[in-house]
Every structure is written in structure tokens, then in C-alpha cells.
Design a protein that fits this description.
The chain is α/β, with parallel strands linked by helices. The protein has helices spanning about 20-30, 50-55, 80-110, 120-125, 130-140, 150-155, 175-185, 200-210, 235-245, 280; strands at about 5-10, 35-40, 60-65, 70-75, 185-190, 215-220, 250-255. About 40% of the residues lie in helices and about 15% in strands.
């Protein structure tokens, strides 16, 4: 268990399932000392600061921005009005895209003989406007057609009706988001760098360093989140740590928990604290937490 897990999601994310309070309770139960919640492209629930304080947990709240071939997490931000309006407007576009992509998948499944409706998925998971992840979960958990949603994804990902979430929303330039985070007095972290394909990844290491990225994730559940390379999570972490030490960039890390949705091969949910950083490593990025 890692005491500081700085990458987690709640139901505010389109692919999340539990409340912030439930996530905090789970983290405390697992012995996590510091938790980062960074829901996708949306503003955090700042009432969670008080709840976490009562539970004796240090809490960092932020946003995971979906950028062009990278995700950038911004923590401890005081966002300007014009940037808030920009983020909210884009978030609404993303929501529309998630619904459109999900419904396209449902329509495609019908043509392949799997007759389900979008409203059935909504009702089964008690989640309004669920993204395609929940359609895949429905195939596995309700219809028992696959052992897991991940296996369902593998089966359908080459179909023409299986498309990426947010595909019709313009991708954000990551450097622009790093600047937005810094303008808000926040701390910018490049999440899961090996999810960025080469040669872009190599370019981004240099580009982000030049533009003041504050930390980069080293500890992360790569294979559980769709990484197709041959290296193990441990090998990837070792390589990233070595690179960041040479670049003199601080290390971050987190489980990317979407409890209970994202799972290991044995279908055990990824838990807060499964990935993250140590107390010593936290000293270099301690500013992600709101001053008490």
C-alpha cells in the first residue's frame, strides 16, 4: 500500500461510480494518508475538504484535463472566471459526446444481434447519461456475455461503431493547460506518460519540461487501464523514475481508482493506495494540498 495516492475518481467523472465521501472512507480504511481526487474535465466538490479533515485524511482536489495525446492534472487551483467559463463550456460538450458515443455503441450492438437500450443501462447502474464504459459493463455484468467490461472492450474495439469518447470535441493543447493551471496558482502533473504514444511521448517529455511541468506520474496501473506494451507496471515505473531523476522533475503517482469499476485481471477492484508515492517523495510536491 502506498500512503499517498494522488490520482482517483468519483461519480463526478463520467466513468466514475462512487461519491467523494465513499472514496475518502475507502482510502481511510486502506490506510491512505493523503488522497488526490481529480475528476475528468470537471470542477471538484470542495465540501470534501471538510469531510476529509474529519476523517484525518489529507486531501488534494483538482481536475484531470483531457488534452491532445496526454492528460494533465491540476491541483490546488484558484481558477479565474474566464477559465472557469471555458472549462464549463467544454465540459458540457464532452457530456454530449459521451452520450452520443454510448448511443452509437448501443445502436451498433443491435445490428450485431445484442438488443439492449440506453435507458436500460441508465437504470441498471442508476447513473444519468452513462458513457460507453457502462454499456460494456452491462454486457458483462447483466447479460453475462463477457467475463469483464475489459474483455467486452477488446471484442468490440475494432468495430466501426466503437469510437473514442470525446472524439468530436477539440483536443486541448497540453501546454495551454499547464499555463492555465499555473495561472490559477496550481500544480501541474502529467498523468500516466506511457499512455501517450511514441514519438509524441518523447516530444512531450522535452516540451513539458520546458513549460514547467511540476511533476510526472511514475507509479500507475498501466495494464489495468489499457496499456498494450510488453513491460510490466513495475518495469515502467522503474524506467520513468530513472528518467525523472535525470530530468530533475518530481515524482507523482496514483492508482487511477474508479472503484469498483477498474479492476485487475482477477476482477479485484483497483483500490486507493494500490499505487502512489511515499512520505519522502511527497515532500517535493507537498503544495498540491490546500493549506490548513
Amino acid at each position: 500500500m502506498k500512503p499517498y495516492d494522488l490520482h482517483n475518481h468519483t461519480s463526478l467523472s463520467p466513468d466514475g461510480a462512487i461519491s467523494g465521501e465513499e472514496l475518502i472512507d475507502l482510502a481511510v480504511k486502506n490506510g491512505v494518508k493523503g488522497l488526490g481526487i481529480c475528476d475528468h474535465d470537471t470542477f471538484p466538490d470542495e465540501s470534501l475538504y471538510e469531510y476529509a479533515n474529519k476523517k484525518g485524511l489529507r486531501l488534494a482536489l483538482g481536475i484531470e484535463f483531457s488534452c491532445d495525446k496526454a492528460h494533465i492534472i491540476g491541483y490546488n487551483m484558484k481558477i479565474k472566471k474566464e477559465d472557469k467559463e471555458f472549462i464549463e463550456k467544454r465540459r458540457n460538450k464532452m457530456k454530449e459526446s459521451y452520450v452520443s458515443v454510448s448511443k452509437k455503441l448501443v445502436d451498433g450492438l443491435k445490428k450485431d444481434g445484442i438488443d439492449i437500450t440506453y435507458s436500460e443501462v441508465e437504470k441498471f447502474y442508476n447513473k444519468k447519461n452513462p458513457q460507453k464504459l457502462f454499456v460494456l459493463k452491462y454486457l458483462a455484468e447483466k447479460l453475462k456475455l463477457f467475463p469483464s467490461w475489459a474483455e467486452a472492450r477488446k471484442h468490440f474495439q475494432d468495430k466501426t461503431y466503437y469510437v473514442k469518447d470525446g472524439q468530436d470535441v477539440a483536443k486541448l493543447p497540453p501546454v495551454k493547460i499547464i499555463k492555465l493551471i499555473h495561472d490559477a496558482g496550481g500544480f501541474a502533473i502529467w498523468a500516466h506518460p506511457f499512455m501517450t504514444p511514441e514519438p509524441t511521448r518523447k516530444e512531450y517529455f522535452k516540451l513539458f519540461q520546458e513549460n514547467g511541468i511540476d511533476a510526472i506520474e511514475a507509479s500507475y496501473a498501466y495494464h489495468e487501464n489499457g496499456y498494450n506494451g510488453t513491460e510490466s507496471n513495475e518495469e515502467l515505473e522503474k524506467g520513468i523514475r530513472k528518467k525523472l531523476e535525470k530530468m530533475q522533475i518530481p515524482i507523482s503517482g496514483g492508482s487511477d481508482s474508479h472503484f469498483p469499476l477498474k479492476t485487475y485481471a482477477n476482477l479485484k477492484p483497483i483500490m486507493p493506495g494500490d499505487f502512489g508515492i511515499t512520505q519522502r517523495e511527497l515532500e517535493d510536491i507537498n503544495v498540491i494540498f490546500k493549506k490548513e
